[in-house]
């Protein structure tokens, strides 16, 4: 297999509503001395996509309902934050002082419906950032915009840091995807070293690439909200594909319900 590389993209600005993410990514690739090529994957942090799409909310503007007040009293959390979590979710799975585990309306299960104040201008004074309305649609749009600027159609992954049920710590996870195999299903087709047919192997390709890129981008004050991943061209396709939502486990198979 070709060596896999993740190149962090430096020198990008602070993003705001309307900032041209595609143009800034392409400029950062140029600054890195790289030329975008077929089979490349551009991974961008969810925050810059959300900022571009104007998904900032001031908690002071949120109207709080009775359910949010009840949960806030039980967990010691801000009622306005709880209300936003309810608004962004289809159901709450756990409510604790540490985190509210929610099923986001996109289907992803994560803490606090992905709502965050870190690396957000005004975060200290009550401004928070929501996920994009449709991360897969955002990834498809970004892919098309990069192609229009460069003539090359890289795969695009929108990544956010998420926890895992059986492990400590967060890992980069694909919440939006275009042009990339999300899950490679090897069941019944691949074999192990002893020739046994694989029965359960499904490779989380998009999440693995998001995790690689997250290590290159960093999680705090690095200021590198995008990375270029190379060496994974076997999973890059011309079509946009089904998106990150195709990698979600169906609710009927949820082992924690």
From TrEMBL:
UniProt cross-references to InterPro entries, sorted A to Z: F420-0_g-glutamyl_ligase, F420-0_gamma-glut_ligase-dom
EC number(s) stated in the UniProt entry for this protein: 6.3.2.31, 6.3.2.34
Matches recorded under SUPFAM superfamilies: CofE-like (SSF144010)
Domain Coenzyme F420:L-glutamate ligase-like: residue ranges: 12-231
GO molecular function, one term: metal ion binding
Keywords, in A-Z order: GTP-binding, Ligase, Magnesium, Manganese, Metal-binding, Nucleotide-binding, Potassium
Keyword Hydrolase found: no
Name of the top EC class for this enzyme: ligase
One of the Pfam families matching this protein, by short name: F420_ligase
Keyword Ligase: yes
The name this protein goes by in its record: Coenzyme F420-0:L-glutamate ligase/coenzyme F420-1:gamma-L-glutamate ligase
